[in-house]
Write a structure and sequence with these properties.
Length: 121
């Protein structure tokens, strides 16, 4: 069965960095676009970033553009999110999501359980 397991969250200071990982199994990882989304306390789900199946194209929400970098290692079945220049407003539960095709951003058919990122001094 499809499994998406996020890791790498934790506590970071404003201006700091974290790298999230999403280990995928149960499907042909290299055949599907993937995304990261987040949900801050008391707020709705926000799409953060997406990447095509072969990594040829990446997309970012305006709120993270220039600070976050999405990447993937298809040989390791792993999705990454490098987060730099973190801000308190980046505090959220971060999810990885599997797209339904090779290209495009969404829709999604599977989600991980999430990893908590807290940015605070």
């Amino acid at each position: 069965q499809v499994q998406l397991v996020e890791s790498g969250g934790g506590l970071a200071q404003p201006g700091g960095s974290l790298r999230l990982s999403c280990a995928a199994s149960g499907f042909t990882f290299s055949s599907y676009a993937m995304s990261w989304a987040r949900q801050a306390p008391g707020k709705g789900l926000e799409w953060v970033s997406g990447i095509y199946s072969d990594g040829s194209d990446t997309y970012y929400a305006d709120s993270v553009k220039g600070r976050f970098t999405i990447s993937r290692d298809n040989a390791k079945n792993t999705l990454y999110l490098q987060m730099n220049s973190l801000k308190p407003e980046d505090t959220a539960l971060y999810y990885c999501a599997k797209g339904v095709g090779r290209w495009g951003i969404g829709p999604y058919d599977y989600w991980g359980q999430g990893t908590q990122v807290t940015v605070s001094s």
